[in-house]
Automatic annotation (TrEMBL):
Gene3D superfamilies hit by this protein: 3.40.630.30
Residue ranges occupied by any N-acetyltransferase domain in the UniProt entry: 6-174
Protein name in the entry: GNAT family N-acetyltransferase
Amino acid sequence: MTTTFDRLTVPTEEHVAAFNRWNNDEELIPLIRPNKNAEELSGRSSMTLADLEKRLSDHTIFLIYEDGKLVGEMNYMIDPPHLFKKEPRSAWIGITIGEPEGRGKGIGALAMTYIEGKIKEAGLKRIELGVFEYNTRARRLYEKMGYSEVAQQAEFTYWQGRMWADVRMEKQIIHI
């Protein structure tokens, strides 16, 4: 098993197809996007090549490959308005292991270590992320990697017949 990462600079229709597949995967929808109600939860998402190109204007995106096959993506934004703590030089991160064969193999931890290194190289001093409260597997990973809870946004996303909180977590980047 060989996991590699590649910064996305020139998106293609192949990338768009993968992102759309992941964004519409019924197993992933409740983990990667907030939904206000059951209708939104079952709604389809469609990204175009122009949408992905525009996303690169405020996201640094890395593709995740397993044995040469695209299995996911991770990204960060610098000082976006939705940060809970408005500390300058903060990164907001997101990660999706989109392909089923990429899940449960430790790729998420490798990807997190990689993106943390890139954020540190960029001179940022803090990382913040949001994880839905029912996503205990991801929360355990983040805690194991040194993230701590700083807030909860109640009634943030709908799943399994009720609203759930978004748990905000942070990690300070130490520069030596």
